[in-house]
Amino acid sequence: MDNRFASTLKVGLLLLVIFLSGCTTHNTLPSATLHPSNTENINSYKYLIGSGDVLNIFVWRNPEVSGSFVVRPDGMITTSLVEDIEVSGKTPTELARSIEKILATYLRDPIVTVTVENFVGPFSEQIRVIGEAAQPRAINYTQHMTLLDVMIQVGGLTEFADGNDAVLIRIESGTQNQYQVMIDQLLKDGEISANVDMLPGDIIIIPEAWF
């Protein structure tokens, strides 16, 4: 009788597991948000501070509150007077004026200068290259950077790449747009007219060729 009960219990548990497995729902995560860059054309570029940057903050006649500070992953820094100062996404000049307003509570007429010693910048300002690049990665944007400059930094294309079907994704006025870029013509044929200006936040997707 005990053996029959044990067998029945095992069958029941097995059926329960199968039932629960069939009822399991796989929720879909929301798509990642692509944060647009503030740079809309190559002539309006200004460097923005980001997590990992090393900032040199100089407060005139107040060396005790001056020094080097690393921007935390949450985009803030901690100073001797103020624990949390939001710095990510600001230009060095904008940050200097912001710190002057904060320090005015503690100091009389503070004059602040901010310089960046180690450049990382926010993700929204980086160019990302994925797919059949020799070294797919994120690249820190430099003023007047072109597609050719980017491809040199990622080591060109793999032997399996379909460079002329590559796509450049760019957010413009809140809209995500796609453009075809002719990387094979640029790199293999030396067609300089295929070179285009890059902007912060651009994403290049290089597909594999179908043989």
TrEMBL record:
Pfam family, one: SLBB_2
Listed GO biological process terms: monoatomic ion transport
Subcellular location: Cell outer membrane
Its membrane topology: Multi-pass membrane protein
Residues covered by the Polysaccharide export protein N-terminal domain: 44-116
UniProtKB keywords: Cell outer membrane, Ion transport, Lipoprotein, Membrane, Palmitate, Polysaccharide transport, Porin, Signal, Sugar transport, Transmembrane, Transmembrane beta strand, Transport
SLBB domain ranges (all copies): 127-206
Domain of life: Bacteria
Major location category of this protein: membrane
Protein name: Polysaccharide biosynthesis/export protein
Transmembrane segments: none
Family: Belongs to the BexD/CtrA/VexA family.
MF term (GO), any: polysaccharide transmembrane transporter activity
UniProt xrefs under PROSITE patterns: PROKAR_LIPOPROTEIN
GO CC aspect terms: cell outer membrane; pore complex
